[in-house]
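Worked Example 4.2. Consider the chain below.
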Amino acid sequence: MNDILARRARRATLGIALSAALIAGIAPATAIAAETSSPTGAVALQTEDAAAAKEKAYAAMQEALKNLEAAKVAASPEKLAEIDDDIAAFQEIYDMVVTGAAKRREPLPAMQANVDAAQAKYDEAHNRTSDLQAELNKAIDDGASNETIKQLRSEIMSAERREKSCEDDLHSYRRRLESQERQVQDSESEAQEAKAHIDEDIAKRDALLGDLEKAQAAYDDACKAYEEAKAAADKATSPEITKPTETVPPSGSTQPAEATPPTGSSATGKDTSPSSTKQANSSNGKQADTTAGKLANTGDAAPSAIALAAVAAAGLGITAAATRRIKNSK
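Applying the procedure from the previous section yields the following structure tokens:
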């Protein structure tokens, strides 16, 4: 009888051990898959990327600040005041030479009229000389008297002197006009040079102010980008992101009922069931089922190594308990 009970206990123990072994064999593979698909690595990589982006944004902000400081130095109030002083000085020169050019241009029409009048007088004197020379030539050809020829030659000499005088006057008026025109041109050239300096200084001042405005805008954008990168990095490293999600047992799951210990008899002190060994095996089987049920109700995709070890230990404990009871019954 005891041999039969011992064999039954061994078979029950073997079934529990086999179940534990199957669970232990399946669990590592499931755990590896869960570990592989775990988002922990992705979260760590995301955190590193956010930190790198934050450092990059900080470096860009520092570079933008450096450029802003350089732009402020280049467009300092002292520098701008110096440029404004140069502009004012060249503006004064420009106004002066423009005024002088206008004054020098005023007599040009009258001087041009004098040239035109002198030109007309010269043309008239030259024509008179030419006519007298033609008349003298004709008189000589016609055989005019010496008195007539002498008279014509005297008139020609007088006409040539008149022509020469008119020519001198014409050259004088022309020189005066040309000199006045050169003065006007010189004044206009000076005005153009002063205007060029003014435009250059204005462009320089506008460029400095434009660079300062651009540097300020770039710095503001860099600060905004850094704040966004910092917020992203803080969010990536916050406990809400890095803390694993706690496993919540399914709402519909129920824990298996724990095994009820056998009721002792008041008369004999022994189990009232037909076989105390059978009740022990049933109780131990229920405990194993309860452990397996608790593992299943955790909601984890893969049981932990500790849980598997607990199942295996439970199986070994069952075997030992069954063996002791068999020995005691003998």
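The chain has two domains: 2-37+256-329, 67-230. The chain has eight helices and no strands. Compare this with Example 4.1 before moving on.
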